[in-house]
Amino acid sequence: MPILDHPLIAWTAVLYLLTMVGIGLWAARRTRSARDFFIAGQSLGLLVTGLATMSAAFSGFVFVGGPGLTYRMGTSSFLICASVGFTPALLCWTVGRRLRRLAAAGDVLTLSDVVLARWGDRRAAGLTAVAVLLGSVAYLGAQIQAVGVVLEAVFGAREWLGALGLPAMMLVGVGVVVAYSVAGGMLAGVYTDLVQGLLMMVAASGVFAAAVGAGGGMERIVETVAASDRFGPGFLDPTAGVPLWTALGFFFVFSIGTLGQPQMLHKFFMLKDPRTLRWMPLVLGGSQTVCLLLWVGLGLAVPALVASGALPPLASPDEATPAFLLAFAPDWLAGLAFAGLLAAVMSTADSFLNLAAAALVRDLPKALGREPRDEVGRGRWAVAALAIGAAVTAWLYGDLVALLGTFAFGTLAAALAPAMGIGLAWDRVSGRTIALSIGCGLGIHLALELAGRLGALPAELDGVLPSALALGTSLLALLAAGWLDSANPHGA
Amino acid sequence: MKGRPGRRTLLAGLSAAVLALAASLATAGRLGGWALAVLAVGVLPFLLMAWGAEPVSGRRRSVRGFVLWLGAFWVTGCLGAVFLLAGEAAPAWTLLGLPPQLAVLLLFLGLGPLLLLGLGYAAIFEDEPPARGVDSDPRHRRG
């Protein structure tokens, strides 16, 4: 799709990218300390924190990868978001206040700092930093891949650059995120997240209406999909698209696993007043539900349009969102939606850049017993280096955005969710137990993923989600070792 | 721990409610078995909430609130089970043009935030009662 066919869409995208760089430059003038750079000076209110948390959590994974995953595996993919009704409450009321209290009490800017402040165990803090670093780079890779897919469609890069179109557009996206993250750190991150969160909600609502309209109404969409040979009635049954253990794994990892996502947990450090946690689930859950309309709408409408012949079959499932917008949405809505997609991708990418940079320049040196130096200066260099590393990871991974996103989410969930969700609330659990749980989750997940990619997984594990097995094991390890700590407090 | 619900009571109550619902669903064949497994996994976040939720200042956790909150979840779950069973019995039946299995999922997506967050804080936590006895007398307060 050449750029000149849809100049309004292309100009909207350019205007959006320039606005984000502008916010970054504005924030750069207000970023003076590591506290400003990494936790936005602990100055944020309910709406900014709630929407920034939503936009950091909902990324290219939801806006680009989600409809693509539904196109490939049917409505079973919706189980990933089925827990959105209670995960915000779980986050805010079980973990949020404890994290905010620790941040207020001392020099706590990261999850690794939390582990060090709460248990004083450098092994556990080091493992936390490694988990955050690995998960962040993989998550960044998914975002860079998604931004490449979106920009390639908007600017028609495949037509004038051929196979180089996707990597070239990935580099453009990386450039903009790095520009505002290097300049303004987390202060730029949260204010761009706020603008991006509002944009995502407007775009998701508009795209949902356009998708249902283009498909001829929900009833017609369902009939068309059910009657087609390509999709069939099984596509519409959330219990039929994937094996039972995969479906349960999705629900398990994306509900409990939310407690280990640093891009969300990190926002609690920035709260000005912890009393706002009372209403935070409403802001977070409400905005998440509105944004999920895009996934549900396009996830159902695009297969119906392909089944009816109105849209050619997709070369890659990840093209579901851009293909629909370019072919069926009016230019003004497509422009707004593309800006919303870029917003979803970039708001998550900047959070992860910041988290990974902090893990590299602050957490790992502290875990090794060294005093971190020049955190802001080194943090800026780390942001640039990590973005390049993540772009290479995305290019080498070469699979769907949602699958790389699931791997990243799973890494963080398996390693950190039990420690944050249970460890922080359990008085007698020791640092050694926390290190054991994080190490189990991280090691088992990475080993299973590697075995899966090499085709070396035993047949008994067919259909089992590696992250679900790793999360279950780290959870059990923490409960068992924590029980021993409780039974023998002096031995811990 | 004065004024806070006992952890064992909460865990037992939650587990009993979930097991009752799961047992009632387990008679429905494939979908019942599936629903049982979902509930077994799905109950974990609620156990965590019951055990680890912390109120903000001036409030405390309420057993009655937890029961109400769980009841809301239970009603939503039963509604979902009815749709699932109806879909199994009459495959041509639809809700808002959607097959029932899909409608259930979307129902949870839409009603979840409404029930769990709308009732949420107000139900689970209640105001601390005014202090009585020695603690309420300023002459006996320390610090």
Features:
heterodimer; A: about 500 residues; mainly alpha; 19 helices; about 75% helix; globular; B: about 140 residues; two-stranded antiparallel sheet; about 65% helix; elongated; disordered N terminus
Q: What this model shows, in words?
A:
The complex is a heterodimer of chains A (492) and B (143). Chain A is 74% helix and 0% strand. Chain A has 19 helices and no strands. The model of chain A has no long low-confidence stretch (mean pLDDT 82). Chain B is mostly helical and 143 residues long. The model of chain B is unreliable at 1-5 (pLDDT under 50). Chain B has a two-stranded antiparallel sheet with strand order 1-2. Chain B is elongated, with a radius of gyration of 20 Å. Chain B contains four helices and two strands; from the N terminus they run ααβααβ. In chain B, helix 1 packs parallel to helix 3 (63-89) and helix 3 (63-89) packs antiparallel against helix 4 (100-124). Chain B starts with 6 loop residues before the first helix and ends in a 16-residue tail after the last strand. Chains A and B meet through helix 5, helix 10, helix 11 and helix 13 of A and helix 2 and helix 4 of B.
Summarize the structure.
Chain A has 492 residues and is an all-alpha fold. Chain A has helices spanning 7-28, 34-39, 46-57, 60-73, 87-105, 111-119, 122-154, 157-161, 165-214, 218-227, 244-256, 262-269, 280-307, 320-328, 331-367, 375-397, 401-421, 431-453, 466-487. Chain A is globular, with a radius of gyration of 22 Å.
